[in-house]
Design goal:
The complex is a heterotrimer.
Chain A (H helix, E strand, L loop, with lengths): L1 H5 L2 H10 L22 H4 L23 H10 L5 E7 L5 H4 E2 L4 H6 L20 E2 L4 H8 L3 E8 L7 H10 L10 H9 L8 E3 L16 E2 L15 H14 L8 H19 L24 H14 L6 E5 L10 H25 L6 E7 L19 E6 L27 E2 H12 L22
Parallel strand pairs in A: 1-7, 1-8, 4-10, 5-6, 5-7
Antiparallel strand pairs in A: 2-3, 4-9, 8-9
Helix pairs in contact in A: 2-4, 7-13, 10-11, 12-13
Chain B lengths: L12 H10 L8 H6 L2 H10 L27 H12 L3 H13 L4 H4 L2 H13 L5 H9 L2 H6 L13 H11 L8 H10 L3 E6 L3 E7 L9 E3 L2 E3 L3 H10 L3 H11 L8 H13 L5 H8 L2 H5 L7 H12 L7 H8 L21 H15 L19 H11 L7 H16 L4 H20 L1 H4 L2
Antiparallel strand pairs in B: 1-2, 3-4
Helix pairs in contact in B: 4-17, 8-12, 10-11, 10-12, 13-14, 14-15, 17-19, 18-19, 19-22, 20-21, 20-22, 21-22
Chain C lengths: L11 E2 L17 E8 L2 E4 L3 E3 L1 E9 L5 E7 L7 E6 L3 E9 L2 E6 L11 E7 L1
Parallel strand pairs in C: 1-8, 2-5, 4-10
Antiparallel strand pairs in C: 2-3, 5-8, 6-7, 6-9, 9-10
The chains are: A alpha/beta, B mainly alpha, C mainly beta.
Chain lengths: ~450, ~450, ~120
């Protein structure tokens, strides 16, 4: 059929739902693969044993007939669902190395061993005194295209220099040690659905705390091809039907019993998540998807997670908030030069590939990437070839729709705070409020405590 | 007997089963039926006044057959305690120890010594069915707790409020319930004096009360004035009018999902106060209460789920996998997430369910019906009903809902229906393995 | 069991890449000792073990990176080095230790000077 050759998967789904009631093209064998994804249509279709639950077909296109996850995804995404991807640099990345003030003589005197060679990296277009770390050349490239907004001194008043405490503040969106939900989790509590664990996805072994919700389900999946239910001594279609039965047991009514409900919900949502991730489970040792652009190779999971994420978005999976950690060690008390060079190179190259992937798949308008760390590091280097915990750090917003201009000026080395640390020229809570209001179209009040007090930077063009 | 209501319905295998899950780690094979024969009172007393410990089952070891080293090897602490839960003949003692580990939640991530954590564990066990007053006094002076909540940093002139606050907020009164910030500060002063000596390579040692570090001045706590010391701190909270209601409600919540009604609460408070803060009378009243037998279900905490599976299957601790499997389900013994303990309302989500799936898989692994290479498949009945019955028998015949049984039978039937030719022999074992796995993770077996 | 805060302690296993001695099979009489590292201390779960097969485990309960060097006080013996561990990581290795005194320390710059060292006795 002509439609299948021309459109991407997401587009087909959107069209499919839009034409509900008019009869839709049925899936026939031999149908060509939708452009760009490498996904075979049969694998994409919900696997319900013995039944051909086609995404198209049938006149009543209600969620009851379709795989709930994919159908409501298509209905919800409808082309306008914005996605935020949070990328964490673990350890407190050194702001003065990410964007180095190489023209300032104070820089060399504070960093006799660590000062970067002023010719080694790309000059920062918005401020000639600053230079990108050489490993961040891919981000410099995107910046030149207007796709990166840099926060050269983002932090908060009364900075806390404990990793866990400061990171906690960033994750919960407040300087509050007892707050138990993530800022993105509270967003999902407001807009999420009770049967869509993919709305908040932590691409990691465990849940990234920014996504911790109080009511809505979210998921932590190390890789989409690894959420599986394997049982010893079970295989083939018996195994498939066994997994289906998880969902059936999860649909039995708990009859008002709260304990039974908690257990039943867990079975049902797990079964749902498993179905949602069906297209990404490899079959016959073939990877489940291909990417239209090359990603860095190697053992690290970061590029593969981003590649999988782009494929999931392209497949119309109902993701809203995604969180993951970047590769590298940023807590550089010593051996800073090497650690930063390696970690930043892989991170930046992967993020560039991700942006190009989204552009190739026609998704770039829907995705915003936020790169953050829990603090920056001290202006003066220590005696061990490294730096110790500081205060304000560097952050980035990456995407086709970002304004592409600095948020907050570079704090400068001549006016450090009383501890010898960079002063913050933007507050992370104001940034969050802007992301919630301008990108995610929801009021920051009720999600960021004390939201009114924070100025919103301009984040989108 | 006081005014606490007593369950007067039938006390059969089903009721005994639930009692064993709530007050222990589930039944061994046949244990529920045996307990039922004692009647409600006899059953409760056998739990609250057990004879001496008689370990039942094989001794624990790691994957290489080595005995456990709970003070010296990561994870062996968890295994050592899990083993106690599996082999104990005094399940309520062990279950109350677990409850108190949550109540006075101390994490080795802050203490840094498995040895000190084990010493605290012994303390929790010593008073598990005894005096809450003695428990509170001992835990205040307990080395692991002194490190965890900064007791050793709290001294005259430089008070540290950590323990004083949690003593009231989490252990005895409840957040903001009958105390002020001033009380927190004054409690901290009263609790000053505990100290230790740091020795290189050994860590904190020689925990003791040092009068020179204690603030001897007058303090005002709950409106009372006195030159209070740390024992007074304990007694002041115990005698606070809001303590008994807090205590009985919190204790109850470990055994019954819905809070007690007013009459029950008043009766339990009276038992507690009149008994001089002894826990046993309150426990006996709770374990005899109708709400435990007729009320809703509770999700089993992960270690209870694991120990219960092993007890039902008759298997011992023979692998260190239980450490990370337990973590995957959200509960690593000796590492509660924070001082408020674990959150019962959040045991199960898409990740921890997958964790429990893996737990069930590991527990059932030795019993898997597997086709050995070059041999015929194990011969088992292809009758769906027999397969389901077999799975139930393997797991100790737990009580399940009729609709669950129906689903399992339907699964077996559908899988076997088209199994002709080579499948006729090969499929029944696959289906049997799958039914056992589904049964083990069913909502019925995740709850009790 | 009330609030569920975010700080789950998940200790990931990071087994050291280079084994100085291979682990022995049939480990009767293998002893265990755990070395806990924080800022800036190094604590052993026991102060001595019998000579022979020792399973030595390093656990990082601190907030910074740490590592471990195990050096016999006898001259000419090559030190045993554990790789760097991030907070909450651990590593364990089975070592064949002869009787004598051993020095343990963290080799991250400045850590030993700040107190991360201890001694350990292998009884013969």
């Amino acid at each position: 059929m002509a439609c299948c050759n021309e459109h991407s998967r997401a587009e087909i789904l959107r069209q499919g739902i839009a034409r509900a009631g008019n009869g839709l093209p049925a899936i026939e064998s031999g149908m060509p693969t939708p452009a760009g994804t490498g996904l075979d249509r049969r694998t994409f279709v919900a696997r319900s044993l013995g039944l051909a639950l086609a995404v198209y077909g049938g006149s009543a296109l209600g969620p009851r007939l379709l795989d709930e996850g994919i159908a409501s995804a298509a209905a919800a995404t409808g082309g306008s669902q914005q996605v935020i991807v949070s990328v964490f640099l673990d350890g407190g990345a050194d702001a003065l190395s990410l964007l180095a003030p190489v023209q300032d003589p104070l820089y060399r005197s504070l960093r006799p061993r660590l000062a970067l060679d002023p010719t080694a990296g790309t000059p920062f277009a918005e401020d000639p005194g600053l230079m990108w770390h050489p490993s961040l050349a891919p981000l410099a490239q995107l910046h030149a295209e207007g796709k990166v907004s840099v926060l050269p001194g983002v932090g908060y008043d009364h900075p806390n220099q404990s990793h866990f405490t400061s990171r906690h503040f960033w994750e919960v969106g407040a300087a509050d040690e007892r707050l138990a939900t993530g800022w993105l989790g509270r967003y999902l509590d407001r807009v999420g659905k009770p049967d869509n664990p993919l709305q908040g996805l932590s691409l990691d072994w465990s849940l990234q705390p920014s996504l911790a919700t109080s009511k809505m389900p979210v998921a932590a999946v190390d890789a989409p091809d690894r959420y599986d239910f394997w049982a010893r001594g079970v295989w083939g279609d018996v195994g498939d039907r066994m997994i289906d039965t998880i969902g059936r047991l999860g649909s039995l009514s708990p009859q008002g019993d709260a304990g039974l409900r908690q257990a039943t919900d867990a079975l049902r949502q797990s079964s749902q998540l498993y179905r949602q991730l069906t297209p990404f489970r490899p079959k016959d040792n073939q990877p489940a998807f291909t990417s239209p652009v090359p990603y860095p190779g190697g053992d690290d999971r970061f590029p593969r997670r981003l590649a999988g994420l782009a494929a999931m978005l392209s497949a119309g999976l109902p993701l809203r908030v995604v969180a993951l950690s970047a590769p590298g060690h940023y807590d550089t008390h010593d051996d800073q030069a090497k650690d930063l060079t390696d970690g930043l190179a892989l991170t930046a190259t992967s993020l560039l590939a991700f942006q190009r992937d989204l552009e190739a798949r026609g998704l770039a308008d829907r995705v915003l990437v936020h790169v953050w760390s829990e603090f920056g590091r001290r202006a003066k280097e220590n005696g061990s070839g490294g730096t110790d915990h500081g205060a304000a750090g560097t952050g980035f917003l990456i995407g086709s729709r970002v304004a592409g201009t600095m948020i907050g000026e570079f704090p400068g080395l001549s006016k450090l705070d009383e501890n010898g640390n960079l002063r913050a020229t933007s507050d992370f809570r104001g940034l969050y409020a802007a992301i919630l209001e301008d990108w995610l179209s929801t009021d920051a009040d009720g999600i960021i405590p004390g939201a009114r007090a924070f100025a919103r930077p301009k984040i989108l063009r | 007997m006081t005014g606490s209501p007593r369950y007067d319905g039938p006390f059969g295998t089903q009721q005994a089963e639930r009692l064993l899950w709530r007050a222990g780690f589930g039944p061994r094979r046949g244990e529920a039926a045996r307990l039922a024969k004692l009647g409600l009172d006899g059953a409760v007393r056998s739990l609250t006044r057990p004879p001496g410990e008689k370990w039942i089952g094989p001794s624990p070891h790691d994957d290489k057959g080595r005995p456990l080293a709970p003070a010296d090897a990561y994870g062996h602490d968890h295994l050592w305690w899990l083993d106690r839960m599996v082999r104990t003949s005094r399940p309520l003692v062990e279950r109350m120890t677990l409850n108190y580990h949550d109540w006075f939640a101390t994490s080795n991530s802050g203490v840094g010594s498995q040895k000190l954590m084990l010493a605290q564990n012994r303390l929790l066990r010593r008073y598990s069915l005894g005096s809450f007053r003695k428990m509170l006094v001992s835990i205040t002076a307990n080395p692991a707790m002194l490190i965890w909540l900064s007791g050793i940093d709290n001294r005259k002139g430089a008070p540290n409020e950590n323990y004083g606050r949690e003593l009231m907020e989490l252990f005895t009164l409840g957040e903001g319930n009958g105390y002020t910030e001033r009380d927190v500060r004054e409690q901290a002063r009263a609790l000053t004096g505990w100290t230790s000596t740091w020795k290189r390579g050994k860590g904190q040692t020689d925990f003791r009360f040092d009068a020179s570090r204690h603030d001897p001045g007058a303090k005002v706590i709950f409106g009372k004035t006195g030159t209070f010391s740390w024992r007074d701190s304990v007694d002041l909270t115990l005698h606070h009018p809001r303590h008994a209601p807090f205590f009985v409600t919190k204790l109850w919540s470990y055994f019954v999902p819905d809070p007690p009604d007013a009459q029950t609460r008043a009766a339990l408070e009276t038992l507690y106060r009149d008994g001089g803060f002894e826990v046993r009378p309150v426990l006996e009243a709770i374990l005899r209460h109708p709400a435990l037998y007729t009320g809703g279900r509770m999700v089993k905490p992960p270690v209870v789920y694991i120990a219960g599976l092993l007890r039902g299957l008759g298997r011992g601790i023979d692998t260190t996998a239980w450490v990370w499997l337990s973590e995957g389900a959200g509960q690593r013994l000796f590492y509660p997430p924070n001082v408020a303990g674990w959150d019962d309302s959040r045991w199960l989500d898409t990740n921890t369910f997958r964790g429990r799936w893996s737990i069930a898989n590991q527990a059932l692994a030795p019993f898997t019906l597997e086709q050995k290479k070059g041999k015929k498949p194990p011969k088992i009945s292809g009758d769906p009903d027999k397969i389901v019955q077999g799975a139930l028998a393997l797991l100790g015949n737990p009580t399940i809902r009729e609709e669950t049984r129906t689903e399992l039978r339907a699964f077996a039937r559908a899988s076997l229906q088209t199994a002709s030719g080579w499948k006729a022999d090969a499929y029944p074992p696959l289906v049997a393995n799958a039914v056992r796995q589904l049964l083990a993770v069913s909502p019925d077996l995740q709850t009790c | 069991m009330k609030r569920h805060l975010l700080a789950l302690v998940v200790l990931a296993c990071a087994v050291a890449a280079v084994a100085a001695v291979p682990a022995t099979a049939g480990n009767e009489g293998e002893s265990f000792v755990q070395v806990v590292e924080k800022e800036y201390t190094l604590t052993l779960s026991r102060q001595s073990v019998p000579a022979g097969s020792v399973s030595l485990e390093l656990v990082n309960f601190g907030m910074d990176t740490h590592d471990l060097v195990v050096q016999s006080s006898k001259p000419g013996v090559k030190p045993i080095r554990f790789k760097q561990l991030s907070p909450r990581q651990r590593a364990d290795r089975t070592l064949k230790l002869k009787p004598g005194r051993y020095l343990l320390w963290c080799s991250i710059a400045g850590h030993r000077q700040r107190g991360m060292h201890a001694t350990f006795l292998v009884r013969g």
